[in-house]
Amino acid sequence: MNVSEELIREIVSKVLEAASGKQDDGFVKEVDPSGIIGIKTSTVKCEPFEQDGVKLKDVVTLEEAPRMGCGIMELDHTSFEWTLTYDEYDMVIDGTLEIEIDGRVISGGPGDIIYIPKGSHIHFQTPDKTRYAYFVYPANWQELLD
């Protein structure tokens, strides 16, 4: 078997990356051989979503967690409409998250958890800059839309 220098470099790079906890996505994620995953949410840098004032970053892959998805979302003095094709829990890290449904508003602050059932047509909104973690089931909800 011929092992190229390039393959050795790639293997060493991946081993060092895993040992440091740093991932290609730029945030700290420790993946234990047991399947347990630890994510330092303060290191997650969100990316622009479909409109101004909305950013997000999925923090687990379908390979790592095939049943449940997870990510970080940031809203900055904004609102956007969404219909959920999955169940979702949101845990507020900073700011105030408001979920408007049928003219009513459910609000949460740091440490609070909001559950949104599948099929809900809502407005995510915030009167300030808000950061929260979202947990979705099933993880492959986007594939179910196709």
Automatic annotation (TrEMBL):
CDD domains assigned: cupin_EutQ
Domain of life: Bacteria
InterPro entries tied to this protein: EutQ, RmlC-like_jellyroll, RmlC_Cupin_sf
SUPFAM superfamilies xref list: RmlC-like cupins (SSF51182)
Protein's name in the database: Ethanolamine utilization protein EutQ
Coiled-coil ranges per UniProt: none
